[in-house]
Amino acid sequence: MRLLIRHWRDWVSGGGYLALLLLGLKLETAAGWAGVLAATLALGLLAWHGNLRRALAVACTPTSRVASTAQGYVELVGVGRAADDAPVYSPARRLPCLWYRYRAYVRRGDDWRQTEAGESDVPFILDDGSGHCLLDPIGAEILTSRSESYTTGDSKVEEELLLVGDYLYALGEFTSGGGDRARFDERLELGRVLAEWKDDRDDLHRRFDLDGNGELNPEEWQLARQAARRQLETLKQNSLAEPARHVLSRPRHGQPYLIANFPPEGLAGRYRARARLHGLAAIASLIGLALALQAL
Asked: Under a CB-based contact definition with an 8 Å cutoff, are residues 99 and 86 in contact?
């Protein structure tokens, strides 16, 4: 599914226009061109809106600090760090990295045919000096200035990378758990602990059936509840002692989820430039469509 989304973005970013142009040349009729130009107009408007929406999200979301930001949709900047327990290596050169995307090709005559594609899905860390935030690459639109191509005989691999130590920009849904953000529903947790104890009837009676009659009377059951509350308090204190864990992931309400290794000014400018180009394509398609309809 992620690769389908990636191919769709690539298609909208330019390949779709070429495919529609070739289709129009093949049809060679006014009606055919009208259909192609209508599809091109729709594609241009869709791409214009998507890129403008991203440019506005980048430009209008203030930068936050990991240690002090509120939960929700935020913008973070910092330095990329690898998650200690999850090393990632690029497929072409086996370079240690934070993230990669690759395409593999083989030569067929004068053309290169794609045979394989993929990207890593291992989370990595953004460190802004105030704290660490784990970035989940799944669902993110990732842009990087690091792009390499390696050719060996009739094989070629193109790679895009984010490296350890890269400047990182990220825009997405920020959530935290553990530490002073831990939340306990004591009533539900108490019920859960007591239900677990009831499942082990022998141990429950060994601990709290003081008169040995095989049943827990109200006083003995109250002792069990008090012991469960003490266990919950210990669990709560241990949780509060753990450092907060911050994660940035795909927003729940459909806002853009972006990760890049260049500053927000350059990222917003890139999306604005794309929006202008797609807007011009939409205008040109509209003019062409009007002319094609006149010729029918």
From this structure: no
Q: Mapping DSSP to helix (H, G, I), strand (E, B) and coil, where does residue 87 land?
A: coil
Contacts of 234 (CB under 8 A, 6+ apart): none
Handedness of CA 94, 113, 18, 282 (dihedral sign): negative
- Averaged pLDDT, groups of 10, the chain, 296 residues long: 44 59 67 78 88 93 91 95 81 89 91 91 93 93 92 91 95 80 63 80 83 82 84 72 79 93 91 91 86 76
Q: Compute the half-sphere exposure of residue 98: CA atoms within 13 Å on the CB side of its CA.
A: 27
Q: Supply the DSSP string of 113-171, one letter for each residue.
A: EEEEEEE----EEEE-SS-EEEE--TT-EEE-SEEEEEEETTEEEEEEEE-TT-EEEEE
How far apart (Å, rounded) are the C-alpha atoms in residues 147 and 160? 4
With 0.85 as the threshold, say if the pTM is over it.
Answer: no
